[in-house]
Specification:
This protein has 477 residues and is of the alpha/beta class. It has 23 helices and eight strands. It folds into four domains: 169 residues, Rossmann fold; 62 residues, Helicase, Ruva Protein, domain 3, CATH 1.10.8; 122 residues, Zinc Finger, Delta Prime, domain 3; 84 residues, DnaA, N-terminal domain (GMP Synthetase, Chain A, domain 3), CATH 3.30.300. The longest helix is centred in the C-terminal third of the chain and has 21 residues. The structure holds adenosine-5'-triphosphate, magnesium ion (MG) and zinc ion (ZN).
C-alpha cells in the first residue's frame, strides 16, 4: 500500500476537527449561519497552522449540496470533489509558483462565468503575497467590482507584503501558531490512531521542534515512525532532528556563566559529534535564553515552552536580567552570520567566546555585581530584595510592592525583613509561608525568617535628613 503522509492523511475536513484557531472558526461559523458571507477573505498566519485547510472547509461549507452549513456533509459530489481537489467551482492557485499576471488574467476571465455546480465560484490563492505588482493590480480590478457568486480566499504567511489596497477589501482572519500543548495533543491522537508508541518526553520535544506548526510536527512524527520500531523516545527525536535536550543548554549556560570558555567549546563540539546540527544549537540556545528571560520576568509557565522540571531548573540560574538581555542581544546579532555561513561551527564558537567575554567583563563592574550570598556587599542585599519582589510580582503585586520598601538584612542563616510600618508588617506576617517558600527557592538552602518593623525614630530622621538635603542643595540656593 502506498504510504500517505500524515499531514495529508490527517488533514481536517470539518471545522470541529481543527486544533486551536477558535477565534477564527467561531466568526466563520457565525458568518455561514447568518448567511452574511463576504466576497473576499484573507487568512494570515505562520506556516502549517491550518490556513489552506480552513479555506477548503469553508469552500465545502458554502457549496455543500445540503445547503450552506457549518458541517459539510462530506458525501455529496461537491464535498467529495473538494476533498480530492477536483472541484470545478473551487479553484486553487498557488501564488508562489504562479506569480505572473497571466494567471490572474485567466482568473479575471474565469470570474465572468457562473459556478457550474455549486452556489459559489471560490478562488483560493495560497501565498498571495508572492504575486507580482502587475498581478496584484489585475486582482485589485476584480476586487473593486466583485462579481456576485464569486468568493476569494487568500492565504499568506506574510501579510505585510500584501498591498493595503487588497487588504482593505478583504475580511481579515489571523491564524495563530499553535501551543506546545495543542501540538502534542494532536500528535498523540495521530500516534494512537497509527498504533505508534511514543513517550511523553518525546512528544514534548517533537512539539518544541514543530515550533508552532502542526504540519511540521506531523512530518517529524511520520519520519520517526518509519525508522523506530519500538517505542519512540526523546533520544530518537534528538537523533533525527539533530536537536539537543534542554539539559545540554543548561550545562552550556552554566559554563558560560562560570566564564569557562574551554568547557563551553568542549561541550559544543561534543554536541556536534553526537549529531547536533550547529544551526540547531544556535537556535536551541537562543530559545533557552529566552525561556530563562521569561521565567526571570515572572511570566506564567505556559508562556515558557519547557516542561515543569526544566522550568524548576531554570529558577536556579544566577543571572541578572541586564546580563541576560545583553546575551540575547549578542545571540541575535549572530543570526544573519549563522544563516549565511558555510562554516557555522566556527561562527558558533565565536559567538560563545563573545558571550563568555562579555559576561566576564560586565561582572568586573561593581555596579553590576550579582552576589547576594555576600552579606558584606550592599548590592547583595539589594539583589535579594529585587529578586524577592520580582518573583512575588506575579503572585501578588501588592506584596511585591511592600517588599520593595522593606529592609532586608542577611547574616549566615538568618534573614531579617523590616517593614516600614505596622500595616506592612501585618501583611508580611500574613504571607509568611509564601515569603519563606519564595526565599527558599531563591537561596536554595535553609534559613530562619524574622519579620520586624523599622523604628519610627529612624524613619523620621530619614525624612528630616531628606528635607534638609533638599534645602541645602546647590540648586535651591
Ligand atoms: N489547526 C490545525 N489542526 C489540525 N491539523 C492541522 C492544523 N493546521 C495544520 N494542520 C495539519 O497540517 C497540514 C497543513 O496545514 P495547512 O496546509 O492548512 O497549513 P497552512 O497554514 O496553509 O500552511 P502554509 O502556510 O505552509 O501553506 C494539514 O493537512 C493538517 O494535517
Ligand atoms: Mg497553505
Ligand atoms: Zn456536501
Amino acid at each position: 500500500m502506498v504510504h500517505r503522509v500524515f499531514s495529508l492523511k490527517y488533514r481536517p475536513q470539518d471545522f470541529d476537527d481543527l486544533t486551536g484557531q477558535g477565534h477564527v472558526l467561531s466568526s466563520l461559523k457565525g458568518a455561514i449561519k447568518s448567511g452574511r458571507i463576504g466576497h473576499a477573505f484573507i487568512f494570515a498566519g505562520p506556516r502549517g497552522v491550518g490556513k489552506t485547510t480552513t479555506a477548503r472547509i469553508l469552500a465545502k461549507s458554502l457549496n455543500c449540496s445540503e445547503g450552506s452549513t457549518i458541517h459539510p456533509c462530506q458525501k455529496c459530489q461537491s464535498c467529495k470533489e473538494i476533498t480530492l481537489s477536483r472541484s470545478i467551482d473551487v479553484i486553487e492557485i498557488d501564488g508562489a509558483s504562479n506569480r505572473g499576471i497571466d494567471e490572474i488574467r485567466g482568473l479575471r476571465e474565469g470570474v465572468k462565468y457562473s459556478p457550474l455546480r455549486g452556489r459559489y465560484k471560490i478562488y483560493i490563492i495560497d501565498e498571495v503575497h508572492s504575486l507580482t505588482p502587475d498581478a496584484f493590480n489585475a486582482l485589485l480590478k476584480t476586487l473593486e467590482e466583485p462579481p456576485s457568486k464569486v468568493i476569494f480566499i487568500f492565504a499568506t504567511t506574510n501579510p505585510m507584503k500584501v498591498p493595503s489596497t487588497i487588504l482593505s477589501r478583504c475580511q481579515r482572519f489571523v491564524f495563530k501558531r499553535l501551543s506546545l500543548k495543542e501540538i502534542s495533543t494532536r500528535l498523540k491522537s495521530i500516534a494512537d490512531l497509527e498504533n505508534i508508541k511514543i513517550t511523553q518526553n518525546a512528544l514534548h520535544y517533537l512539539a518544541v521542534r514543530a515550533d508552532g506548526s502542526i504540519r511540521d510536527g506531523e512530518s517529524i512524527l511520520d519520519q520517526l515512525s518509519s525508522f523506530v520500531e519500538s517505542e519512540i523516545t526523546e533520544n530518537d527525536v534528538f537523533k533525527l532532528i539533530g536537536f539537543m535536550g534542554s539539559s545540554f543548554y543548561f550545562e552550556i549556560l552554566e559554563q558560560v556563566i562560570k566564564g569557562d570558555l574551554k568547557q563551553v567549546i568542549l561541550l559544543l563540539n561534543k554536541g556536534i559529534e553526537d549529531g547536533a546540527d550547529p544551526v540547531e544549537i544556535y537556535r536551541g540556545f537562543t530559545s533557552y535564553l529566552r525561556a530563562v528571560f521569561l521565567v526571570k520576568t515572572g511570566l506564567p509557565d505556559e508562556y515558557v515552552e519547557l516542561s515543569g522540571d526544566e522550568i524548576a531548573s531554570l529558577q536556579n540560574i544566577e543571572l541578572e536580567r541586564e546580563k541576560l538581555t545583553a546575551m540575547l542581544e549578542i545571540c541575535l546579532r549572530f543570526e544573519e552570520m549563522v544563516r549565511r555561513s558555510i562554516n557555522v561551527r566556527v561562527v558558533i564558537e565565536l559567538l560563545f567566546s563573545k558571550l563568555v567575554f562579555n559576561l566576564s567583563r560586565s561582572s568586573e563592574s561593581p555596579r553590576k555585581m550579582n552576589n547576594d550570598k555576600d552579606t558584606a556587599n550592599p548590592n547583595g542585599k539589594a539583589n535579594l530584595k529585587d529578586k524577592l519582589s520580582n518573583r512575588l510580582q506575579n503572585f501578588s503585586p501588592k506584596l511585591a510592592g511592600i517588599i520593595h520598601d522593606v529592609e532586608i538584612e542577611r547574616s549566615d542563616k538568618n534573614i531579617i525583613i523590616s517593614a516600614k510600618n505596622d500595616f506592612s508588617k501585618r501583611q508580611l506576617e500574613g504571607n509568611r509561608k509564601v515569603l519563606e517558600s519564595v526565599l527558599k527557592n531563591i537561596l536554595n538552602g535553609d534559613f530562619t525568617l524574622t519579620l520586624n518593623m523599622t523604628e519610627r525614630k529612624q524613619e523620621k530622621n530619614h525624612l528630616a535628613e531628606t528635607i534638609k538635603d533638599l534645602f541645602d542643595s546647590e540648586e535651591i540656593k
